[in-house]
Amino acid sequence: MTEILRPHAEEQYAEELALLAKDDDRERPPGWALSPWAVTTYLLGDGERITPKYVGSRRLVEVAVATLATDRALLLLGVPGTAKTWLSEHLAAAVSGDSTLLVQGTAGTAEEAIRYGWNYARLLSEGPSLEALTPSPIMRAMVSGSLARVEELTRMPSDVQDALITVLSEKTLPIPELGTEVQARRGFNVIATANDRDRGVNELSSALRRRFNTVVLPLPASAEEEVDIVARRVGQLGRSLQLPPAGMDEIRRVVTVFRELRDGVTEDGRTKVKSPSGTLSTAEAISVLTSGIALAAHFGDGILRPADVAAGIVGAVVQEPVSDAVVWREYLETVVRERADWHDFYRACREVS
């Protein structure tokens, strides 16, 4: 049997979840697999048996978990690459033991993804009935008393977004064709993610936004924190893809480049640089390094070198071919070229630029 490329969080960390459940003697909200304290420990780790899933402010995580213990839905807001999806998946895994009740928001998401659809073969032969109804992940979460996830909420058309209003405010989902409704069981709630940097964003209506408690996920506060996040995720992805480990020197270099271009100043504060149009997020740094490791493994000696990450960095920085290319060339010549231990990286970037 072929190994699964990306197991769900509740499968990948089943031992840790079971360990926490065994020792968890604190009060659990109705329908929760763990207490809020244990959920927070699962997310942040305990330094011993439980590995951290999210690196960031403990208070921020506590606010998110406490929100889900109320009747308010949770909106994780932040620029791309701030681990919104990652955090929502692990929250659902810890609270409900099931992170698969997912609606992926796109410009083409239909209202049926929020409410329900129909098995048209049965609908035509039998007429409207519960058996002919196809429940959405939201409806299934309501019936089972679980957490539902809505990814990229602001990518959905506004009329589809507003299909959530009745679900969040009344905790019911009307089925007018059958003259009935589905009422949510205790334990049901919704975690949504959104960012305001993507093109084609559909702003949330004030009526819908009022029904969420919003937690803003920041970019990593320090370089060391970001290096730690990137190293953990690259290591996990590398093991899954059977790739060799990445050296910390190259990880730090990629993170330094991204942070300096993102902040508009070098890390020593002495030189101002222009920022490109892209976000240069932590997630993009992870992608650049994973691609570099694959290059090194399949077309090199297995050791990650500057030439392996150069093309990925240039691709991440130069999103707009004209303006971003100018920004990148200036950064190369004024910052990278002047660093004594970055000469190999400078030459590699010049070659692919």
Could you walk me through the main structural features you see in this protein, from its secondary elements to its overall organization?
The protein is α/β, with parallel strands linked by helices and 353 residues long. The chain has two domains: 9-214, Rossmann fold (3-Layer(aba) Sandwich); 223-352. Helices cover 46% and strands 11% of the residues. It is built from 16 helices and nine strands. The strands form three sheets. It has a five-stranded parallel sheet with strand order 2-5-8-1-9. The chain has a two-stranded antiparallel ribbon with strand order 3-4. The chain is globular.
Helix content: 40-55%
Rounded average pLDDT? 93
What sequence of helices (H) and strands (E) makes up the elements?
A: HHHHEHEEHEHEHHEEEHEHHHHHH
* Outline type: globular
Please work out how many helical segments DSSP would assign: 16
Radius of gyration: 23 Å
